[in-house]
């Protein structure tokens, strides 16, 4: 299971994520969709460890 609890990410004065939490059960399929610039790639980079959290 993937568990994210209280994730926050900021760039300078712009808050991308503010305290988001979610769980993804084992053997689940997940799709990230949304408009350009909404934070999909940022979230994947944080989960992959290549982009640090703000707190």
Automatic annotation (TrEMBL):
Pfam families in the cross-refs:
ABC_tran
For this UniProt entry, the molecular function terms from Gene Ontology, in alphabetical order, are: ATP binding; ATP hydrolysis activity
UniProt KW keywords: ATP-binding, Nucleotide-binding, Transport
Residue stretches making up the ABC transporter domain: 18-49
Q: Which InterPro entries match?
A: ABC_transporter-like_ATP-bd, ABC_transporter_ATP-binding, P-loop_NTPase
Reading the lineage from the top rank, the first entry is Bacteria
Q: Is NADP a UniProt keyword of this protein?
A: no
The entry assigns this protein to a family as follows: Belongs to the ABC transporter superfamily.
What is the name of the protein in this document? ABC-2 type transport system ATP-binding protein/putative spermidine/putrescine transport system ATP-binding protein/putative hydroxymethylpyrimidine transport system ATP-binding protein
What species does this protein belong to?
Lentibacillus persicus
């Amino acid at each position: 299971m993937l568990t994210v609890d209280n994730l926050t990410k900021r760039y300078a004065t712009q808050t991308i994520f503010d305290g988001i939490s979610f769980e993804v059960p084992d053997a689940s399929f997940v799709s990230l969709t949304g408009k350009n610039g909404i934070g999909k790639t940022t979230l994947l980079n944080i989960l992959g460890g290549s982009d640090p959290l703000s707190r």
